[in-house]
Write a structure and sequence with these properties.
Radius of gyration: 23 Å
Number of helices: 23
Structural class: mainly alpha
Helix content: over 70%
Number of strands: 2
Strand order of the largest sheet: 1-2
Distance between the termini: 31 Å
Strand content: under 5%
């Protein structure tokens, strides 16, 4: 079991290294945006990208998950047909969708209530959506083939290009919002060019009608679920904009983005998790393996939640060349960061719980789960935002992810029962809660950084006192540390 978990950890590390480095580069955009865009302009940017997120689901229409399911088993068609059929389908539909967006730029700008002088960003959005859609199946192929390094390299280069162009166009040329969307368009185009060798090696025009029908049957039921998931992830921006103003959306978006560290952990795990559980599903100890991974993943997310909550305020107030990491105009929203990260934690749990639904081909239940969570999100946003503003939007997001996690567990257990290690998970939860209580007791002092570090140590000690770690795990950890220490320089 340890070896299999190590393989998942290795793939997660490869995906994660590029993701972490890339996201950290992307994180540089938050200081750039907060220092070179007004909260109102940042709010417009966040609003449009929330609309792009919805359209990404339409452009995909479940083909990525369908590709993973049938390319791994090769039940129908040849390997090249399993790649080409979903790729050609997405390419054709994306050309139509983006053509509509580009040809109706002005009417769409008016319809989504964006100032007409920003109408060009609708055109760029159409191009971003098109090139990103062309990359869906090639990236899925790289993941399925365990080509994590190539996948990670291309993803990382995409972010480097995007971030570099953002800095150039916003800081040097002062192009504002338009510069952001031009950067995104160029980065997506270059990413597609990087993927062309992979596409050409696997492309055939021997289109399989039988496979196509099967892919649609598997993938389309996830389309409503995908829309519902986007509602959970981004609907708070449009609702917040409707109930408040662009500036509130900008402040919310900047602080939401500071939850990047938890998002990184969940994202890098997600990249490796789906190919992993499909590949290991037939192992004799698969269910025990999945339960153990859930425990370790929960521990990792809990640790990140503590560390970032303790130190985020110190991070954003660092000054570089006379400018704060985050402009003071945005500090009013710092309180939402732990709430957003806790939401990501529950989203991470829902990913681990989802294995049974995919393995048993019960994707028909995904819409029930995600639409329920989405409905909770929308209702909570409308109830809480008028009362407590952006904090209400953050709580709505947390509540919806919690709902999704509970429902994903319930339905998955019906068809693929796994005995999760809930006693161990509760021990982690108690350790986190006690550490937070201690954190709230200590008043701010000149030694607050030392106190925070000591509290992280206290968290680890509490895990030991609660007997979270098993003897075999401790021995294995000692062996790993010993072998590392004994390596010759």
């Amino acid at each position: 079991m340890i070896d299999k978990i190590a393989r998942l950890s290795k793939d997660t590390l490869i995906y994660g290294t590029s993701t972490v480095l890339g996201r950290l580069l992307n994180f540089l955009l938050v200081p750039i945006y907060t220092n070179f865009l007004s909260p109102s302009d940042y709010g417009i940017t966040a609003y449009v990208y929330s609309l792009i997120a919805f359209l990404n689901v339409l452009y995909n229409y479940g083909m990525e998950s369908a590709y993973f399911r049938y390319s791994s088993s090769q039940e129908i068609g040849t390997p090249k047909q399993n790649f080409s059929t979903p790729f050609i389908s997405i390419a054709a539909t994306s050309f139509i969708f983006s053509g509509i967006l580009i040809s109706l730029t002005t009417p769409i700008t008016e319809a989504v209530n964006i100032p007409l002088h920003y109408s060009s960003i609708i055109l760029y959005s159409g191009l971003i959506l098109f090139f990103d859609a062309l990359a869906i199946v090639p990236f899925a192929l790289l993941r399925q083939a365990n080509k994590a390094k190539l996948f990670a390299t291309i993803k990382f280069l995409n972010i480097v290009i995007n971030v570099s162009l953002n800095i150039l166009l916003l800081v040097k040329y002062e192009m504002g919002i338009e510069g952001i969307f031009i950067s995104g368009t160029i980065a997506s185009l270059i990413t597609f060019i990087f993927l062309l060798p992979t596409i050409l090696r696997n492309l055939t025009f021997n289109f399989s009608g039988e496979l196509y029908k099967t892919l649609l049957k598997f993938g389309l039921p996830s389309l409503p679920a995908g829309f519902a998931l986007m509602i959970i992830q981004v609907i708070d921006r449009p609702i917040l904009r409707a109930l408040t103003d662009n500036a509130s959306v900008g402040i919310y978006q900047a602080n939401y983005k500071l939850g990047i560290f938890m998002m990184l952990v969940v994202s890098m795990f997600d990249y490796a998790w789906k190919p992993f559980f499909f590949a290991r599903a037939k192992d004799d100890n698969a269910k025990e393996l999945f339960a153990r991974i859930t425990t370790y993943f929960f521990l990792l997310m809990s640790f990140v939640l503590l560390v970032i909550t303790f130190f985020i305020e110190d991070i954003v107030k660092i000054q570089i060349s006379g400018r704060f990491i985050i402009h003071p105009d945005y500090w009013v929203g710092l309180n939402i960061i732990p709430i957003i990260m806790l939401g990501y934690l529950f989203y991470g749990l829902s990913l681990t719980f989802s294995a049974g639904i995919y393995l048993e081909k019960k994707t028909i239940y995904l819409p029930i789960i995600t639409f329920t969570a989405a409905a909770v999100n929308v209702v909570m946003n409308f109830l809480l935002i008028p009362a407590i503003g952006i904090t209400g939007a953050a709580i709505a997001t947390l509540t919806s992810y919690l709902t999704m996690s509970v429902l994903m567990y319930f339905y998955s257990q019906k068809f693929y029962k796994i005995n999760y290690e809930f006693i161990r998970i509760l021990k982690v939860t108690f350790a986190v809660a006690l550490t937070f209580i201690l954190f709230s007791i200590f008043p701010p002092t000149d030694y607050h950084l030392i106190v925070k570090v000591l509290l992280i140590v206290v968290f680890v000690i509490l895990l030991y006192l609660f007997k979270f770690f098993r003897k075999g795990e401790i021995n294995r950890l000692k062996q790993l540390l010993s072998s590392f220490g004994n390596k010759k320089p």
